[in-house]
Amino acid sequence: ENTPTKLPRYLSYAKEKLGVNNAPSYEAALREKSYGPDILQHVDDKELISLNIPPGDVIRLKKGCEAWMRSPLSQSATSDGSGRPADSTDNSIRFEKVFLNPEGYASFFGDGIERAPDSAVPTDSEEFQECDRFHWYFHSTQLKQRVRLPPGFIPRLFRE
């Protein structure tokens, strides 16, 4: 199954283990085309090169993705470079900050949610529009889906 965290985790792996030093910088272009490590080996080289990925990196990315998808590294986001602290417990929560324009997201780990300080919830409509360019979500293990945090609440994130 292709999940939202697979592409950034694969690109991190490609940087560390496959020698694709700029791999994380390719995430936005690959995500825009819906290319994940699950199908990357089937994408034409010329198409990937047109995304400003150097030909050598195209070869390395395509060569490594199939083996990575079969490995335990692709199965879950853990302390293997996914952003979860190595000393985290099973009580950690994965949060996503989902950007509205331009689209994208970033994953973080924390241990709960809390009411936002009053200064973090602007009342002026213009100021709110500036602040409202992203939404926070958390991954509910019980519901097995991503759930949006209610307005006025923010995640309590682990410090790196």
Number of domains: 2
| Coarse morphology | elongated
| Sheet with the most strands, sense and barrel status | 5 strands, antiparallel
Rg from alpha-carbon coordinates: 18 Å
What is the strand and helix layout of this fold?
Layout (H helix, E strand, L loop, with lengths): L5 H12 L9 H6 L12 H5 L5 H16 L22 E8 L2 E13 L9 H7 L2 E7 L4 E4 L4 E5 L3
Antiparallel strand pairs: 1-2, 1-3, 2-5, 3-4
Fold and architecture overview:
It contains 5 helices and 5 strands, in the order ααααββαβββ. The protein has 160 residues and is α+β, with helices and mostly antiparallel strands. It folds into 2 domains: 67 residues; 65 residues, no CATH class. A hairpin with a 4-residue loop joins strand 3 and strand 4. The chain is elongated, with a radius of gyration of 18 Å. About 13% of the residues have low confidence.
Task: Report a brief summary of the structure.
By secondary structure, the protein is an alpha+beta fold.
Keywords:
160 residues, alpha+beta, 2 domains, five-stranded antiparallel sheet, 5 strands, 23% strand
